[in-house]
Protein 1
Amino acid sequence: MARKVFFSFYYAGDGWRASQVRNMGALEGNAPCSDNDWETVKKGGDKAIENWIANQLVGRSCTVVLVGEETANRKWVIHEIVKSWNEKKGVVGIRIHNLLDSTGKAGSFGSNPFELVTFSSGKKLSSIVRLYNPSGLNSTEVYKTIKTNIADWVEEAIGIRDES
């Protein structure tokens, strides 16, 4: 049975790439939010967004952060990472910049968002959470690497969180 996961990503920058991963069928992901639904949530302000995220995380065992060029700069992605970790969910990152977008272009390598989360001890989340850079010489090979490994990466993330 596939794990239930929450996918965190920068919608405007990586929605197309993220949909490729979400539609692989290797995991049971959160229901996509349409542009219109997301605009309605955003109009409700920060509290409405926080509530939406909280509701999306219910029943999920892991958050999969799909990392593109601008992911680490997104306030709500960082919020999702912190909330997931604090709720004792597994957290794992997968770089998706080498998957092609709707125009057939690959993206650029982005910063590690886990570097931006620091515990009160000064330790960074990046020292615990894995960020995978899938192998492959082209988008098709990268897709295949993700599809082949994503379930194992999620299981590993849950195991890491259980040990922490």
Protein 2
Amino acid sequence: MYCLSKVPYDYVLYVDADERLNGNLRRDLKEIVKFMREHNIVAARVLRLNFLSSKNVSRYLFYLDFQVRILNKGFIEYKGVVHEQPII
């Protein structure tokens, strides 16, 4: 929450240190945020693929693992110490 309070923008892309953006999200991020602003959407979930070593295990263990990653910081609060979850 401290870091979010220091961000000068309303919309934030939240990414854990061990996560990476795929090319589609990287390419479309500005359009997604524009759409969210225009339609008063305060949070969006992103499909996350999980890898163990170099093998994609999402389809076996964590299929359809959606996480809130694009958010309007004015409407979000994080609770917890480790693996915090957003409260919208």
Protein 3
Amino acid sequence: MSGDDVYRGPIAAAQPVPVFDWTPCTKPPPLERARVAIVTTAAVRHAEQRSFGVEDESFRVLESAERLVLDHASPNFDRTGFLADVNVVLPVDRLRELESDGAIGSASPVHLSFHGAQRETLTTIRLDSGPAAAELLRAQGVDVVVLTGV
């Protein structure tokens, strides 16, 4: 069985799907008044932050796009885009342009990074680090999140 078959085949199909008692539904303000943050799965972090380990389900808070290190573990991940322009995985310059143009209310002062190469379970993200990330963004007044999946 190839690696791709694991994600599409009987193993993936046998994974339990969580059932929630309720689905929170919120209506954000119009984009021109919304605070927007970026959440990336590119496993980027500041040089002084702890490295992402393989299948690390925690997140890193990014307060700027300076001194970023790419920790993505997959050997199949093409790093050349990130090396040429961080906006490929963390489009903070584009977000600032949208803010300057009045298309969004403001860019969040912080953005978040997760390691996207997850295999076995997402329980920790669903029950622990995901809610913690959401709470951190709420505390920053974030209304909308742009997910840059890698």
Protein 4
Amino acid sequence: MSPGKTDALQTHAIHLGGLLGNLQSLEILLRFFLSNQPGARPRGVPYGIDIFESPVGTLLPVSDITSYDTLGQLIDKFNAYASSTCSPTLDRSLVDIRDALAHGRISAKVPSEKLRLVKYARPDNGQVRVLFNVEMSESWLIDQKRRVYDAMQIVSTHMPP
């Protein structure tokens, strides 16, 4: 592989990692936000228990932090709050990017730094529908990182001090 391609793939990996990190940060911010809202699920975790240090197999109560809610459900809950307070809402299409990264395929037609992200729907009658298809260029990755970061800032403005 030529040095130029190696550099491009390293840049791709750095931006992809940044995008994934931002998506995970957005999700935990949403969970913390929702756990502080009136009507939140009981936190239920006894004082002194660090849920992030719990060994595999530990049973914890369901809370807004530990729930199985998807990113889409978390965004919908935040947007319901934001709409009721005339605050900016989050762009739900961020879920499409997260889902494509989690369930899509990343590849190139030929060995190249021009990688594509493609996601397909569940098969129906022997066919699949393309749900997501984008070239993961450096500018696309940077734009998506910025979009997720902007969403994180919106949530952060509603967090208690």
